[in-house]
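Researcher: Going back to the complex we discussed earlier. I've cleaned up the inputs and rechecked each line, so this should be the final set. Can you rerun the prediction on the complete assembly and write out the structure?
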Amino acid sequence: MMDNVGGSSSNIAENSGIIREQDRLLPIANVGKIMKQILPPNAKISKESKETMQECVSEFISFVTSEASEKCRKERRKTVNGDDICWALGSLGFDDYAEPLRRYLQRYREQELDRANNPPKRG
Amino acid sequence: MRQAGAYSGLLCGGVSGRTGPHSLPLARIKKIMKNSGEGVKMISGEAPIIFSKACDLFIEELTRRSWIMAIQGKRRTLHKEDLASAVIATDIFDFLITLVSNSDSHAVGGATNVMEVETIDYS
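Model: Rerun complete. Updated structure for the full complex:
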């Protein structure tokens, strides 16, 4: 298997449809940082556990996206939106996430509306 | 003049940039969503933003539960076995059991296992 470390092979990888390892996972530094901030200061995190968490997060995204996408298909809609993600989380047992995310989504939309109604003066 | 809101940092860097203090790259999240199945047609701009937050919550929960396993093992370093134990012990993480059981597969040098995601109906 081709080693895809580094960006020079991105065109080849993209053209041949290979999902590059680095495109399949969220960056280990970001994932590690979130893990670290939830643990006590004296905790250590092995590299292997960060790598396993990277895999788990990608699987979580795919799992929830598939559920959301299926809902869209049944409703004959083409675009997966934020509401679909929140619904899918609840449907898959992540009820504790769905409610704070609905509030987060609402704030995001309110902010989008605010930006639309108040364009920057220098824009 | 409009004052910066409490959430105005949400959109720093635009949709393909980062959001918030524990941000995850939105472009990468979108790519993972697109690769989750042929059924995923279009993804709204808000969906990766919601997922960024959802992934924060997911990483935090799995890390916290894994840490409990490490502590029970009288260790201060989080190992991948702790993640596997946390996955096995937690119902909503059932979809990860195969993944954490085979988390060495990518190190063997073989092709990446593409797991079929089963939609679990809890109702």
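Model: Worth noting: Strands of chain B lie at 42-43, 77-78.
Researcher: Good, that matches what I expected from the previous run.
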